[in-house]
Amino acid sequence: MARKITYQQAINEALSQEMSRDPTVIIMGEDVAGGAGTDGEQEAWGGVLGVTKGLYKKFGDRVMDTPITESAFIGAAVGAATAGLRPVAELMFIDFMGVCLDQIFNQAAKFRYMFGGKAETPVVIRTMYGAGFRAAAQHSQCLYPVFTHIPGLKVVMPATPYDAKGLLIQAIRDNDPVIFCEHKVLYTLEGDVPEEPYTIPFGEASVVREGKDVTIVTLGRMVHMATDAADNLAKQGIKCEVIDLRTTSPIDEDTILESVENTGRLVVVDEAHPRCNIATDVSALVADKAFDSLKAPIKMVTGPHVPVPFSDVLEDLYIPNAAKIEAAVRSVMGKKG
Amino acid sequence: MSEAIKALTMPKWGLSMKEGKVASWLMQEGTAISPGNEVLEVETEKISSAVEASEGGVLRRIVAQEGETLPVGALLGVIAGANDTSEAIDAFVAEFQKNYVPPADGDDDAGPKTEVVEIKGRAIRYLKQGDGGTPLILIHGFGGDLNNWLFNQESLAAKRTVIAFDLPGHGQSSKQVGNANLGELTQVVHDVMDALGVTKAHLAGHSMGGAVALEFALAHPGRVASLTLIASAGLGPEINGGYIDGFIEATGRRDIKPHLEQLFANAELVSRQMINDILAYKRLDGVDAALRGLRDKIFPSGKQATVLRDRLGSLSMPIQVIWGEGDAIVPAKHAQGLPASVKVSVLKGAGHMPQMEAAAEVNKLIEAQLG
Prior knowledge:
The structure holds two protein chains of two kinds. By secondary structure, chain A is an alpha/beta fold. Helices cover 35% and strands 20% of the residues of chain A. Chain A has twelve helices and 14 strands. In chain A, helix 10 links the parallel strand 13 and strand 14. The longest helix of chain A is centred in the first third of the chain and has 15 residues. Chain A is globular, with a radius of gyration of 20 Å. The termini of chain A are far apart. Chain B folds into two domains: 94 residues, CATH 2.40.50.100; 256 residues, 3-Layer(aba) Sandwich (Rossmann fold), CATH 3.40.50. By secondary structure, chain B is of the alpha/beta class. The model of chain B has no long low-confidence stretch (mean pLDDT 93).
């Protein structure tokens, strides 16, 4: 039965159902259990924002608190994956990947390739990203383009509770390393989610809204900004097709190209910094493979090339919003203002 | 205000419909209409269909313009007598618009809700609408669910209780299909009737659900008041095995679309939302195994395993068979050569889903049989 739950509950439910189904699934990370060895275990914290809350009670030692050393526990998770477990490691903030990046891009991402296809590394690294949480420059970045750049990693960023559950179950069952990016502002978002386990294949974008005038390609939290913009533009007679990529690696080229071939106009919305991000990647794809379909220049709406500010006022200014997306759409439609 | 002035409003097709777009008017102002006439075409996210007049009269006023998107219950037009004055029509429209409150966003409490009954360890989802009389039970086909009846259930529930449910392996019912044969599904109908306190019912089954209804009637004739078999399995050996296999094997939108288009005479009815809903269903754990199990037992090697046509004559309750002329899944020729007591209707302009594509005609035929 489908019922409404939050993005955060959908992630928790996916973890719980996969741990029940498959005894090789384990969880490791900082405070995911809530302080092993202390008295607090009945009310375990469940990670910094409580996403894994309740799982320690159900699954005991399969939910492992680790020391605050990402290099050690991400490395351990990668190793455990090569040895037959399916670890889901929580890298609290994507901003911390710098301290454990070798384990991810030089080890996990390379094993299948370097061992002639004989090694599998079914590890999932769950991590929070994104601005809007008043958490300043070191806890607000959108570093998923870095992972998307690396062959051998799959990169997933659900925008809805339904997608969060289906994509996480798919990630856990996948035999390659998956970076699962959760936008912290979306944790409280509610949506219809079936109670039963289900999967969503990687590399399948979701067309969240159909339209004939402009294609808006976007991902993560920006899907909601783009939908708001499309709602406003529809009232002005401009019909936007909004595409949620859902995964950036693999990426669903067909859905993007098919849409641009119909609309002839493209706006790409990405919360990440403007250089070498998903917006530039999608723009390059369309310029390369669908240039003849374009009736107007491609527009990108992104965060600026500066760290995320701590000031509330500046942070709000930093994040792409519906007004900026609307302006970009109006510009590719040849309209002023 | 004249009693005879009636509002034609935006229908609610299925539980999730919130609004619809007026695609085109099929009748002009001043046209005389009878109940059941198709008056205009409406598009929703999921599907397009015609809106039928539930009242007879003259279409005196077109209120909703083509291209307009309006919420469920909004005024589309006015049906009245030829002699009602245009002032009276104006007053009716003004009064309606003054009192009309569109359903609020997230107002899911309004309208009928599906329920779940636990039977022998399986959860069975059902939707009950209407009240009284001998109940009508609607049984969907392979890969379908209770939403296959979205154009029928509410209309048929005006005079009686109508129950649609999800067979095991389908919709939001449990995905365990047990022996996965017709006998297993027939037993489920029996158990659902017992669980809901229905001793005797009219049965209407579509495709595989038709074979289930027929097998149930043969096993428990005393519990069946009448049978309506729509594009039914069980009346001949042929079936489009390519469709069944294609439906099972497809994993994405591009693979499944050509197969779903075979279901309809008008392939444009296959909307993106319909495809998304079917993919979301197919991606639930257990569905793939359930569908393969049912295929292997009920439609092995591209043939129907059970042909019951010779036993149709042994049944004494009223039986009718309805087919879409352009059915590409189960051939319409299965409607031929049945006992004379069986009423046969072959509908033009419909494919394998006449209850959706020719909803008004199918509703009328079922209504006529149920009396």
